[in-house]
Amino acid sequence: MTKVKHSVATRKRKKRVLKKAKGYWGDRSKQFQQARRALMHALVYAYRDRRTKKREFRRLWITRLNIACRNSGMTYSQFIHALKKAKVNLDRKVLADLAVRDVKAFEKLVEIAKGNSK
Prior knowledge:
This protein has helices spanning 7-20, 32-71, 76-85, 92-101, 103-116. It is built from 5 helices and no strands. With 118 residues, it is mostly helical. Helices cover 75% and strands 0% of the residues. It has a single domain, classed as c-terminal domain of poly(a) binding protein (Orthogonal Bundle), CATH 1.10.1900.20.
């Protein structure tokens, strides 16, 4: 049986890993095994943080809404409850954006909420 050489496949695999590890600190961008380990960690963190990012943004939106609502004399939970009663179907992302960028529109939503909170 003839001998099979793997050099082309090996070089291709190593080049692919080193290309992805470009910009990593020290040997993590130069040596294949170091790069592979660093890349595995990086991919795990990327996978995890794609989910964490959603939680963190929701927390940010709720914090912004709470501050804006309290400046208008309401709490966040009262505001959200009153909007649901008024059948205003805006999500927290849009509401937080309105609170930051368009204060007049947000004040109108607070008035609607205050009208339905009773």
